[in-house]
Structures are given as structure tokens and as C-alpha cells.
Amino acid sequence: MSVLDIMTTYGDLIAEVTSCVLVSPDSVARFLPARSGLFDIVVCDEASQVRVAEAVGAMGRATSVVVVGDSKQMPPTSLAEATIDDRR
């Protein structure tokens, strides 16, 4: 079974035995079913490091959301992202 299949089938049971899940927004989108109320609360810490488009999926799966950040944090960067150079 894929992780998505496991979470779709056994997600409620897993949520009962794990009080906290620490995942990236990308992992939420890849491995968790897209349904509201999956989480009681989603906390976006270091929020200035996460693009809104990346966080919306996790936020939509939660009953409530806490966004934490401050004006002294660095904005998101694409420094570590893979890029494709189409110039030839």
C-alpha cells in the first residue's frame, strides 16, 4: 500500500494513537487525504518561510489554524530548490 492509501484507510486510527503529527506542507499534500477536519489544529511556525500556496492544503485539512512568524524572519527562498535550465 502507498502512504496515501494507508492514511486514507487507517487515518482515523493513526490520528487516535498519535496526538501530534509533524509534517511539511508538501508531505501533507502528497500523503494525506484531502478532506476537511483531518486535524484539530495546524500550526505554521516560521510562517515567513512557507509560501501561501504551499500551506493552503494543510490549512484546508484543519478545523483551526495558528500562523506564527515575525517581521524579522527571512522571506521564502528558492536557493535549495532544483531548477531546470532550458537554454541551449
3D structure, described in words:
With 88 residues, the chain is α+β, with helices and mostly antiparallel strands. Helix content is 35%, strand content 14%. The protein contains 3 helices and 2 strands. The protein has helices spanning 3-17, 25-31, 52-60; strands at residues 39-44, 62-67. The protein has a two-stranded parallel sheet with strand order 1-2. Strand 1, helix 3 (52-60) and strand 2 (62-67) form a beta-alpha-beta unit. Helix 2 crosses helix 3.
Helix content: 25-40%
Q: How are the strands of the biggest sheet laid out side by side? A: 1-2
* Global structural class: alpha+beta
**Percentage of residues in DSSP E strands:** 5-15%
Overall pLDDT: 81
Rg value: 16 Å
Largest sheet entry: 2 strands, parallel
Number of helices: 3
> Per the principal axes of the C-alpha atoms, what is the gross shape?
flat
List low-confidence stretches. Answer: none
Gap between N and C termini, in Å? 41 Å
By DSSP, the count of extended strands is 2
The total number of structural domains is 1
Q: What is the N-to-C order of secondary-structure elements (H for helix, E for strand)? A: HHEHE
Quaternary state of this entry equals: single chain
